[in-house]
Specification:
- The chain is mainly α.
- The protein has 15 helices and five strands.
- The strands form two sheets. A three-stranded antiparallel sheet has the order 3-4-5, covered by helices on one side. A two-stranded antiparallel sheet has the order 1-2.
Length: about 400
């Protein structure tokens, strides 16, 4: 299963980081103080998780809501882990601000490793760095269930996932260079590897996310460079769009890779359970239980990519899930935890962003801005969402190493 190969190890790494954070915090517990901003952040997390817990109990598929779909992995337990990760890392940085530089540099090194893993796959798509690498079950499908058109994936289960991570690390590299936490030579080396790897993923959302975050960071001071970069990115996105023909779809569906239909499906299913949604990671649940113009189907089994149901004649049939996400942050969150959960999530995001902007680490919020741009046509996933929340874990931190102001 893709989740066992690519998702669970990353989640396990976050668990280990949280444990390490707690061990360090316990050693310095005499100096540990809980500032007001941290308490407010914890309260906002508790509200969001509380609504998610109620949505899980009310969900037709509570176990799926608790654990999430196997590849996406962003069930209630994952969001509890992200809350612990964000809050514990914030306290850690307050006690040991010198770790901020090490964390950023470590993530940039990880991004370089990811970029290096992309290039061999661009040459031979059968490389997936698993125990069964190179083995096929069909002419265009690897034994690890990766399709040829999903490569290059790097160290993730889809090229789209890898593209966001590359874009996020490119933003971190720029921020680290502005702060003089990364010298010019290393920043240039990282950029020379990361940017081509990002282009090789041929994922428009990743390129757009990097462009939006770069414009946010550099602003008017470098408008000539940004105009050129924007034109180049739009050209690349246009070429990728025009060469990706999907069943002769209308222009708007061609541009969005047929996301429009998914958004319409999501809107209809949100209207069925508007307040609390269908449970965490709820698109698959909502899709299998609601059919437009028909009565609610009796679902016998909901799998990761298909479901069994009983039709009006009492016959048991199997249907495929077209996707596991609505491919839009607002729609997916509202599907999962309803309007109440969506409102609490937006308040949490807004508070964290504002606190980072007010802190000495202003500029790092650009990573999350890239994430917001990316998730306009993609989604949250346990393979990479923790990177965005790492940038928000700097909320309210008032001490930092000496750096050049962005």
């Amino acid at each position: 299963m893709r989740g066992e190969i690519w998702t669970q190890p990353k989640v396990f790494a976050i668990v280990l980081i949280c444990i390490l954070n707690f061990l360090i915090l316990c050693e310095d517990r005499e100096n540990l103080k809980l500032p007001q901003s941290w308490k407010i952040n914890r309260l906002l997390w508790e509200i969001f998780l509380g609504i998610g817990f109620i949505a899980t109990l009310a969900s037709p598929e509570p176990w799926r809501s608790l654990f999430g779909q196997e590849q996406m992995g962003d069930g209630l337990l994952y969001w509890l882990l992200i809350a612990i990760f964000t809050l514990s890392n914030n306290l850690l940085l307050r006690l040991h601000p010198e770790l901020a530089r090490s964390q950023l540099q470590g993530l940039v090194i990880g991004g370089v490793i990811l970029a290096l893993s992309i290039f061999p796959q661009a040459i031979d798509w059968r490389i997936d760095y698993t125990a069964t690498t190179g083995q096929l079950i069909q002419s265009n499908i690897l034994r690890s269930t990766i399709f040829q058109n999903q490569q290059p994936i790097g160290l993730y289960s889809h090229r789209g996932h890898a593209s966001f991570v590359l874009a996020a690390v490119a933003v971190m590299t720029l921020v680290g260079w502005q702060w003089q936490w990364i010298n010019t030579r290393l920043a240039a080396t990282a950029g020379i590897l990361i940017i081509p790897a990002l282009l090789l993923t041929q994922t428009r959302a990743g390129i757009l996310a990097l462009l939006v975050a770069t414009i946010y960071l550099l602003g008017r001071k470098h408008y000539k460079l940004l105009v050129l970069a924007t034109l180049v990115c739009l050209l690349i996105i246009g070429i990728a769009t025009s060469t990706r023909q999907i069943n002769n779809l209308p222009l708007i569906k061609q541009i969005t890779s047929d996301r429009v239909d998914l958004w319409q499906l999501a809107n209809y299913r949100i209207s069925q359970r508007p307040l609390l949604g269908w449970g965490m990671d709820g698109f698959g649940t909502a899709y299998s239980y609601v059919r437009p113009g028909k009565k609610i189907t009796k679902v016998i089994r909901l799998g990761d990519f298909s479901f069994d149901y009983q039709d009006e004649n009492g016959q048991i049939k199997t249907a495929q899930l077209p996707t596991t996400k609505a491919h839009n942050l607002i729609l997916d969150t509202t599907l999962s935890v309803g309007l109440l959960g969506m409102a609490s999530y937006l308040i949490l995001l807004g508070w964290c962003l504002w606190q980072v902007i007010k802190s000495p680490y202003r500029g790092l919020e650009a990573v999350f801005i890239a994430y917001l741009a990316f998730t306009f046509t993609w989604f949250e996933c346990a393979q990479f969402t923790h990177l965005a929340w790492w940038s928000l874990s700097f909320f309210g931190v008032s001490h930092c190493l000496e750096k050049t102001a962005p």
